[in-house]
Design goal:
globular; Glycosyltransferase; 36 strands; homodimer; about 725 residues; 4 domains
């Protein structure tokens, strides 16, 4: 918005007569293609002890031949500059211009400008820059032209071409080709360096990510660099997860940057015989997102948890939302789904959500679940509806809806005789990293996610104007929900059982389906209370040891008003990691483990990721359930603020939205709110009638008060909490 | 076969102990991927007057991430060299080797060697060369590994991965990366050059194809080269179809090769002000296929027709079978289908057929007909069964069968309420280039091709061991055939009508469905005779003016024993082009046109291709219906030889097969046959009992005799024809 204003301002001051529609030109491509391409680039940067370690699922590719066009009505002729990544042709009103013009003249009047681009290696992309003609998402694109000519040269008058609006990442520099896209870097230095063997061990002070730069590298021989998220890992040259082994042949001293970025806190730098260097530093690589969300409270430990969570999340926010920075650096749908939610309470970076959703889904045909994981297909659907709810971006839902349909068709095609999903060859049923977690038979958790995904399909069908689809998905969702309660609800246990095997309920009760059932609002109030007591607060039901599932467990408890309990859990669990020296949050944390056991996973001594996106969930929980801000209708058109101190003396923070922030301060006596968006309802309990400056307060039920919040004003409430 | 023997011999002489399975290593890739990739490269070489002119249908892409593996049992350790196009890892028995090794040691015993390759720009490919371990089509490949690990690092034991055998083009040079693949060239010179304006006009003596080489190019300015299949075209700098416009800045004389190969006979070379050159020559670019088929007869004009047809066909046989060398240079399925048949009677180059079939089909999902043309989808199916019939290569049918299924599913999904196909948005109903040819309603020709394609599906389903599919497709084909006769056969006209509109037969009778009905053997003997008289030999039914449909028209007449009539037609039609100076056969030839009218098409004065593959059909007709050789069972295991002089005094020629040639000489008194394959039945008519050396002769019906031909022997028959 700011940029647009600036341009218009500039143009007004420079005296040019321009249309108000003047916009910044962007590189554009077939929607989703750059996302798929760039996710291939990013995900193929994984290495394991020097070996290339690509994903195991299908990697899709961009369309190699794409046609772009837009119609313009010019009041005067206009010179238009063309920048293209690929081999191309240019047509004005269907007439080709010879060669590969870099600039063309478009006459006044109504004209159609088309470019067709072929590029196998990179994404076919164009950047068009005239006074009023600019490339942006209003251009139309297609990967197949269903037009032809007859023997006389006449073009068919019955086109079957499907045009869709172009995709873009708002890359605004015509001289920077999309394929050259890189995240920014800044130089950083180790906090401490000590000599070890022939080399040195550097401690960068906390978990970080980037390229190691070797200053004054010289000589002939082998250079080895061992990376460690822990000191133990960096020193374990045989077992550290990532390393560089390079053969050096430099007669003169030269500063050299390692080819691949890595995650580390410690770097064990070992030049072999004949190789020397002056020092090392790093180029910290980061996503240029803005930290908009904030949280501060009377509890210093909680504040530290919030800060470390935000840092953990920022490190894992890259070209896409990835799982963890050391090992996979892949786009895992279940992990990303949590990142979306954390993002809405921190960066509110909508483009990264869209990119990640597009990259995960790839292209048709669907040959497997997303990441091959059944549950991960479902999170993908849920992520789209959440995206709409938080951003109000209906166009994206419409654009991606066909790809939602084809994934759901794939899933529907895998139902068993009971209309339920169970393992089939090629399916990974993940749920969580947990010992002895059964994946056999018809697992209730998967059916629950299936039902929720069908509800999502029904909602998105409506947004995409597919009325029949909406009805059909809605019916399918209702039928499945009814079946879930008929088949999995155990009256005696007052809980959903974990699974059915051979058409019979198993005895097993786990937390998964039960906690999701709560915040999906699938239970009756009585069932909800029973589930809370019998499952969530029941120490006998197997405990969760990953922050991944703790996210949902704590969310379920918050949704039932258990903020004081959850606050203690957050302090115990995340505070527990901090006490062990964590500078970012982990892939898994089991308080019962000791010492270097915390570093192990997957049967490898340093297999565990110590900086995992799903470790950052306090960002989300504190924003949504303590500051208590969440959208009611899409894009915060309406929303609620229900502050819950959960035992804190005071807290304050900001929740970002597309239009600006919502600020909340809350102590036991005072609530202050201001908002840059929509219409909010501030709700709070008070023992006596609260005093509100400049606004009315309603008592909507006994002891529960509500103030309507309009944007651009400050609200102050005095109450007795 | 020869190469294999040579290797084994060499190894025996060198005293090494090797397994007999020792083979030449090839570059391998995921099947179909290099075909798709290279067809993109080739088809994107089209230009029109200096503008890039790509295809309008969807271009697919290779899988960017591919896993290859094979298990070996080694009697002793072996060093294996690795060549890879892409970023890769190497695993022995699942254990990754660090870095990007170029050579590895594999221990004795049973081991699995795996390489996983990522390449966005080019096809992920490997070349593995050890003593016994070599990369070839026995390796397995996949684009998605459906395997995963649990938290302990244990790999899932229930894989859902589909492995298919790798693809190859038998590229045997490890240092020549597949992406560098190029057809060979040889230097050739103009027959005659004359000065024009500042430049020169060169006549290369006949239609040809390649890169123009400019000798001693020097200076600063514009160089223009105008290409012509005719002199008129080369001289028409405003209307010639292809040209080069280059900005030159050379201080020293330099020999320069033009970037894109072109089709031409005449080259109009025009250096602009400040630019000069000594001379031009060309690099003739060609497919290195062997001209195995041959035909010679007592008729010199027919011999010339055969030779020009073979040259025309060779020019259009490139990386794939293309339509014509000047303009499109694309892989059109209907054109290629005829090329396959011509190929079986000339080069017998099976790889080019496979490549072309794979390139046309591309990848799923199917979003349009092949080349967007309904009829062209059907020719694709027919081409696969023909391929099997001529080569006996069942494995290819099995490999491609899933892609046949998905294309047929797409087509089945487009049936109308009557179970028939008619135009839908995006469909091009081509049939032929012909004036006033109606494409409205339910066209009989399309239904006929649909029925034949379903029969093909049934046959291929059997070959691919899909028993249910075979039954289902067979039933579908039978039902459709019955419906065609019920709905389109007009008793009064004794012919199939052209179409139905609004559920009613039209009055229109065209040649298309009727001639295909003959060689599909869909008619009863009475219907066949009636169709021949009422349609094929009926001057009132609109004439065919493309060699494309003349192919089938003449085939239908040959199939009914009308060789004398067809011979006259061949001499008139193809001889007619020769009389007009053709050095290759044309896209269209209408004897009623005059002078430069013959060069026009698509509303452009030089729009017509003067070297079009479908112009070469005499190759096929003379081999199959005059020499009379055709397979009965797949791969010429059994076959027939039914020579038909059609009025010639004598003829002789060779028909190639996978195992060697079948030679036929036939005069009115003598037939000589020898064969390198299968078991043949030589059948001929004789007024008296024939004399056969070294073999028995049977009279199978009155005046019709049969001799069984075994391979490796010479047969001589004296008869009275």
């Amino acid at each position: 918005m700011k940029t647009l204003k600036k341009i218009i301002l500039l143009l007004i001051f420079s005296g040019s007569v321009v249309q108000l529609s003047a916009q910044k030109a962007s590189w554009i491509w077939y929607p989703g293609d750059f996302d798929i391409y760039m996710s291939n680039v990013m995900q193929n940067r994984r290495t394991e002890r020097g070996s290339f370690f690509p994903v195991f699922w299908k990697m899709d590719s961009h369309y190699v031949l794409v046609d772009f066009h837009k119609e313009f009505n010019l009041s005067q002729p206009e010179e238009v500059k063309l920048f293209v990544e690929g081999t191309y042709n240019v047509k004005i009103d269907g007439q080709a211009i010879s060669g590969f013009p870099k600039s063309i003249q478009i006459p006044a009047g109504k004209h159609k400008l088309s470019l067709k681009v072929y590029n196998q290696a990179h994404v076919p992309s164009i950047f068009v820059q005239g006074k009023t003609i600019v490339s942006d998402e209003t251009w139309l694109s297609t990967f197949e032209d269903k037009e032809w000519i007859d023997a006389s040269g006449k073009t068919s008058d019955k086109s079957g071409t499907t045009f869709v609006s172009a995709g873009s990442w708002n890359l605004n520099d015509p001289n920077q080709l999309p394929s050259q896209f890189k995240l920014p870097v800044i130089a950083q230095y180790a906090a401490k360096t000590e000599k070890t063997n022939n080399g040195s061990l550097s401690d960068f002070g906390k978990e970080t990510f980037g390229f190691i730069k070797v200053h004054g590298l010289k000589g002939k021989g082998r250079l080895s660099i061992y990376y460690g998220e822990s000191k133990e890992e960096a020193l374990s040259i045989d077992k550290c997860e990532t390393l560089d082994n390079l053969d050096i042949d430099l007669q003169q001293k030269k500063d050299s940057i390692m080819p691949l970025s890595k995650a580390f806190r410690y770097v064990n730098f070992q030049p072999g015989n004949g190789v020397s260097a002056d020092s090392i530093s790093m180029l910290y690589e980061y996503a240029p997102v803005t930290e908009r969300g904030s949280f501060k409270s009377s509890d210093a430990e909680l504040n530290k948890i919030y800060d470390v969570a935000k840092y953990t999340f920022h490190l894992n926010t890259r070209e896409f939302f990835i799982d963890g920075i050391k090992r996979d650096r892949w786009v895992w749908s279940g992990d990303a789904y949590q990142s979306y939610l954390m993002n809405y309470y921190s960066f509110f970076d909508a483009p990264t959500v869209k990119r990640t959703l597009l990259a995960q889904r790839g292209k048709d045909p669907v040959t497997a679940h997303i990441n091959t994981i059944m549950d991960y297909s479902f999170y993908w659907f849920l992520g789209i509806y959440d995206y709409y709810k938080f951003t109000g971006d209906q166009k994206f839902v419409q654009d991606i809806y066909p790809r939602m349909q084809s994934l759901m068709t794939y899933i529907d095609g895998r139902k068993n005789k009971n209309g339920l999903l169970e393992w089939m060859p090629g399916d990974w049923i993940f749920i969580d990293w947990a010992d002895k977690l059964s994946k056999d038979g018809e697992v209730s958790f998967e059916q629950l996610l299936y039902a929720r995904s069908l509800e999502t399909m029904a909602l998105c069908a409506k947004l995409a104007n597919d009325t029949n689809g909406a009805t059909q998905y809605d019916q399918q969702a209702k039928a499945l929900k009814a079946k879930i309660f008929e088949l999995y609800w155990n009256q005696q246990k007052s809980a959903l059982v974990h699974s059915r095997i051979n058409d019979k309920q198993t005895d097993n009760v786990t937390r998964y389906a039960n906690m999701f059932g709560i915040f999906f609002d699938y239970f009756s109030p009585e069932q909800k209370l029973a589930v809370k007591e019998n499952v969530l607060l029941n120490g006998k039901v197997a405990k969760i040891t990953t922050p991944y599932m703790r996210f949902y467990e704590l969310e379920a408890l918050c949704a039932m008003g258990e903020q004081p309990y959850v606050l203690k859990e957050i302090k115990n669990y995340w505070g527990g990691m901090l006490k062990l020296g964590a500078t970012s949050f982990w892939e898994e944390y089991n308080p019962e483990k000791k010492g270097t056991e915390h570093l192990e996973m997957y049967g490898r001594p340093f297999g565990k990721s110590l900086c995992h996106a799903w470790g950052a969930s306090p960002i989300y929980l504190l924003g949504k359930y303590y500051l208590g801000v969440q959208p009611v209708t899409a894009g915060y058109k309406t929303y609620t603020i229900e502050p819950n101190l959960g035992g804190l003396a005071w807290m304050e923070g900001k929740v970002p939205t597309a239009d600006g922030d919502i600020s909340v301060y809350c102590s036991k006596k005072e609530i202050r709110v201001s908002s840059a968006t929509g219409t909010g309802k501030l709700r709070f309990k008070s023992k006596s009638k609260p005093v509100v400056k400049n606004a009315e307060v309603k008592e909507i039920s006994k002891g529960l008060f509500e103030v309507t919040i309009e944007k651009g004003r400050d609200y102050e409430v005095r109450y007795s909490g």
